[in-house]
Amino acid sequence: MLKSRRDRPSQPAASPPPAAEPNVRTVTRKDLPLSCPMPDAEVWNMHPRVYLPIEDDPNHEAICPYCGAKYKLRDE
Ligand SMILES: [Zn+2]
């Protein structure tokens, strides 16, 4: 009697690649002008909207003075 049986090795859940700064939100030029909270953000909706001149920063980084969220502009 033949028994066909497939054992599937259990795969670990896919984990996101480690980020050096997990709290940094990467934005693109499509997100400009950058505002915090961002339009799609709900949990960040805790302070008046502020515009962050991220494109003027030499490192293209901005930190929201209200909630401390860090943004980094990624050139495409
Ligand atoms: Zn903020």
Give a short overview.
This protein has 76 residues and is an all-beta fold. It is built from no helices and 5 strands.
Structure description:
Pfam families: zf-CHCC. This is Zinc finger CHCC-type domain-containing protein. Residues 1-29 are annotated as: Disordered. Residues 46-71 form the Zinc finger CHCC-type domain. This protein is mainly beta. The protein has strands at residues 24-27, 35-36, 50-51, 61-63, 70-73. A hairpin with a 6-residue loop joins strand 4 and strand 5 (70-73). The chain is elongated, with a radius of gyration of 21 Å. The N and C termini lie far apart (60 Å).
The string of secondary-structure elements, in order, is EEEEE
- How helix-rich are the residues, as a percent range? under 10%
**What Rg do the Cα atoms give?**
21 Å
End-to-end Cα distance, whole Å, is 60 Å
Listed once per kind, the bound small molecules are: zinc ion
Mean pLDDT across residues: 82
* Total DSSP helices: 0
Beta strand %: 15-25%
Largest sheet: 3 strands, mixed
Structural class: mainly beta
Strand order of the largest sheet: 1-5-4
Give start-end ranges of low-pLDDT stretches.
none
Domain Zinc finger CHCC-type: 46-71
InterPro entries: Znf_CHCC
Protein name: Zinc finger CHCC-type domain-containing protein
Pfam families: zf-CHCC
